[in-house]
Amino acid sequence: MTVRTSGTRLLALAALAALALPGLSAGAVPATPTATRLLMLEQQRSLGHGALARMLDTGGTLLAARAALALGRTKQPAAAPVLLNHIADSRPAVRALSLFALGLLADGRGIPAMLSGMHDRNSAVRVGALDALDREVVAAQVPGALLARVARAEMQAALHDSNPIVRKIAAIDLVAFATTTQAAPAAAVLVKAFSEDPALAVRRAAMWAIYRGYAAKVSRAILLHALAASDSVIRIEAVRAIGGSKDPALLSALEPMLHDRSWRVQEQAAESILALKGRPATLHWKRIPAWIHLPPIHRSALDRLPALPRPAQPRLPAAPSAAALSPALSLDPTTAAEMVGPAPGAHPRVRIVTTQGNIYLELYPEWAPLTVENFLDVAARGYYDNQPWFRIVPDFVVQTGDPSANAPGLGYTIGAEENPMLQDSDIISMGLDYPQGKPARDSASTEYYITLSPQYHLDRDFTVFGKMIAGFSVLAHLTEADRVIRIDRIPDVEVRAAPGIVGATKLRKGASNRGARSPGHR
């Protein structure tokens, strides 16, 4: 998309209502001036003349872990020595987020520490090390002599790590080696992981990685076998891979997939057939073909929850300020699941009322406090009301948040809040400007998108700040003729620690309301 210029959309003030936003932390640890100072420095991309380093060096677990993340988000090279001092910290969360933060710097200095972290006894630390190594490889910071060692470590993790989340991430990260001398062994590892791993999430990730980097490097038999998988996500990735193989002889294998029982598979089959025929992809979903198997739209129990009131004092949305927040600290990931999911505690929820039905989201302010603050404020002030779904790409994303893809927006941007959460299906993230075909950091504003299928290649640049929890079938019915009628805050939900990728949830009573940038290409 084109780079936006500053501007303010004129709206009727009567439609711009919202509540004053309280602190957004999902945790139970009280807010402190130190936590506010941390968030301010992160927003300013400043080390604070050593203030963040002191928080990491002397703070308790919650403060130190969050300070490590803030140091990485500053992108300041001087943060690296501070973070390297904590890769052997006794606290797993501090080790994990120090490694993750070194990956955000991606200057090569942390590679030995990351390789060491791959062998840490704690799975959260191994996730942090994997994410960081992937960022180093993609940034071309891994010297040739080390590249094979990094690849071997990730291949070993993909096949043999005891934690399925770690194996999943390792499989995803092998895409980075597709154009290197390690491509052949990486492809073999992915085929083995897809064929033999007992965890469905790992098999899905392996086929996604094959699609992204190895479609022409694996046997056609593997791809054809995957077309018959019982899992629709695996079928989607296999269909994508065949489309990326550029082998017209496989057209006959894709044609039956147009009749798949899953609407997502059907749509991707049509796109892959276009690719094999050398025709352009569908960039805007204007109408739904009659042959798509649309799922019925079921009412959710969440439909019965009342919308929380919007504030009485109207004003235009404004850029969120860390100084105005009272953030509590809750990030203490000690497992792989906690490293890629929400922290225990209360989380905001919203209902996106569309012309096709309701979509429900759970938001994660512990990982992206300013992003969540901004989203809730813009929603409560009515800016999202009656906005079109101006960009729907089959089997990729549905996107909205401005009157059009080229609208000027509200005249401000917010900083990126990179985090380890994965862009699986049904994840919400902020869009970014895309000058010269590359995402511009810190260019998010009001546009957001929801993924229709796994889009892990977007993890490095786009801020994940929540996930869908209900209304999944509504996505199947959306076209660019549809609109967001409004976005309502509903009572918060209590997330509790769970062994899966995300926690179990329970209604929290008495919660109060708070007040195209593009995700790029497939």
Automatic annotation (TrEMBL):
<dbReference type="InterPro" id="IPR016024">
    <property type="entry name" value="ARM-type_fold"/>
</dbReference>
<dbReference type="InterPro" id="IPR029000">
    <property type="entry name" value="Cyclophilin-like_dom_sf"/>
</dbReference>
<dbReference type="InterPro" id="IPR044666">
    <property type="entry name" value="Cyclophilin_A-like"/>
</dbReference>
<dbReference type="Pfam" id="PF00160">
    <property type="entry name" value="Pro_isomerase"/>
</dbReference>
<dbReference type="InterPro" id="IPR011989">
    <property type="entry name" value="ARM-like"/>
</dbReference>
<keyword id="KW-0697">Rotamase</keyword>
<dbReference type="InterPro" id="IPR004155">
    <property type="entry name" value="PBS_lyase_HEAT"/>
</dbReference>
<dbReference type="InterPro" id="IPR002130">
    <property type="entry name" value="Cyclophilin-type_PPIase_dom"/>
</dbReference>
<keyword id="KW-0413">Isomerase</keyword>
<feature type="domain" description="PPIase cyclophilin-type">
    <location>
        <begin position="357"/>
        <end position="495"/>
    </location>
</feature>
<dbReference type="GO" id="GO:0003755">
    <property type="term" value="F:peptidyl-prolyl cis-trans isomerase activity"/>
</dbReference>
<dbReference type="Pfam" id="PF13646">
    <property type="entry name" value="HEAT_2"/>
</dbReference>
<protein>
    <recommendedName>
        <fullName>peptidylprolyl isomerase</fullName>
        <ecNumber>5.2.1.8</ecNumber>
    </recommendedName>
</protein>
